[in-house]
Structure formats: C-alpha cells, structure tokens
Write a structure and sequence with these properties.
alpha+beta; 8-stranded antiparallel beta sheet; 5 helices
Length: 223
C-alpha cells in the first residue's frame, strides 16, 4: 500500500502530516480533471445507496447529532463540531501524529478554500478514483451517489536523525451526490472500524426518514 497522499491527509486531518504544510494554511488543490460519467455503476457499500444525504448545514448537524456516543468500543472524543467547511465527529484517543482512530466528516466545498468552490462530492470521487497514488480499491456510481473506498498507509518521519519512521494503516470511504457541494468521509485504522463508522452514518441518516421518535437531550456542540 502506498504512503498517504495529501488528498487522504486532508480528508482525515493527520496532524503529523499536515503540520507545516500548505494544506494547513489555506493552500489550493489542483485536482485531476474529473469525469463523473466515467465511474462504473456499482452498489455503494454498507447500504449508503439507500439513504438521502443532507444538503445543507442544518441537515448535516442534525444527522451528526444522531450518531452514537460510542463506536466499536471507542467513546466519542470530538464533536460533533463545526470548524470552517467541516463538521467532524471522532472516536477513540487521538494520536499526536495520526489523530483519532475513527473519524466521520462532512466537508462543504462551497465554504472551503482548498478545493474549487464549485467542486462537488461526485467530482472529488472521480478525481480520487483517477489518481494512481490515492490507494483506491473500489469505486462507483449508485444512482445519484458516487463513492470511493481506499486503503493506504500514513507514514511520518521521525523528528530527529535516526528516529524511526512511524506508520499506520488508513481505511477510508468518501461519498457524495451529483450537483451537491457536500462530501462525506469515514476513516478508520482497520476495515471493521470503517464498516462500523459507515453503518452508524447510514443508521443516523435513515432515522431522519423514519417516523419521528422522542429524542434524547441534544449534545452541546463545540465550535
């Protein structure tokens, strides 16, 4: 598996890789020319093709508020919180180099300054699928939804001469809809963690389409 690319680093917010880079200071991406129509027709994993994605900030925050307080034995450690164009929920202890072990994000390209402001989730998927070092394993288009699943390795050099390089596997899934500026991402340290994250997202998204039920006291959101 290749070392992590900056596209993956941006999606999972790896502190040891982003520190001091242009990505941490409002740099701009030069994505591969996207061709969404070239994505193969394939069912989205973990039931993603069955849900309606939120298309505004209020809907995103409502979905993230329905996420559980624990996933895969890891407690909620961050969020849900909004920071700029991102809404983030993380689970597990945060490693100083690699961040938390489980992270869900919603990214609004229209509010950011790294990707073009008119970029869409589908265009990101098409770009990632066409980038050799992204680590894409599978990708496709399921109706109006596009998705890309990747496996890669985050590697950070030691901070002193002779210090060994640190590395950690990263399993990611990114998905978005045609003509929507929203990209949703899940990142985990193993395949089972990725499944847990995306399944919880699907459950939270599906709850919004079901008959309303009494809700627990809302979380206090940071940011």
């Amino acid at each position: 598996m290749p070392r992590v690319t900056m596209l993956i680093a941006l999606l999972v917010l790896l502190p040891g890789i982003l520190a001091g880079s242009s990505l941490a200071h409002g740099g701009h991406a030069t994505p591969v020319s996207p061709a969404p129509s070239g994505l193969p027709v394939a069912a989205a994993p973990f039931g993603l093709g069955s849900v309606v994605l939120p298309n505004d900030q209020a809907g995103v925050e409502a979905l993230f508020d329905r996420l559980p307080d624990e996933m895969g034995g890891e407690p909620l450690s961050l969020g849900p919180e909004r920071s700029g164009e991102r809404t983030v929920a993380s689970y597990g202890e945060s490693d100083p180099l690699f961040g938390p072990s489980l992270t869900l994000q919603a990214i609004n390209f229209a509010e950011g300054d790294f990707f073009p402001r008119d970029f869409t989730g589908v265009q990101f998927v098409a770009s990632a699928a066409g980038t050799a070092d992204y680590g894409a394993e599978t990708f496709g288009r399921d109706g109006n939804l596009a998705w890309v699943r990747a496996e890669t390795t985050a590697a950070v050099a030691g901070d002193r001469p002779g210090t060994p390089e640190a590395a950690r596997p990263i399993y990611t899934l990114a998905w978005g809809e045609l003509d929507s500026p929203w990209l949703f991402t899940a990142a985990a340290v193993d395949a089972e963690g990725l499944r847990t994250l995306v399944t919880a997202f699907v459950t939270a998204a599906t709850a919004d389409q079901a008959t309303p039920v009494p809700m627990a006291s809302p979380r206090v959101r940071a940011g």
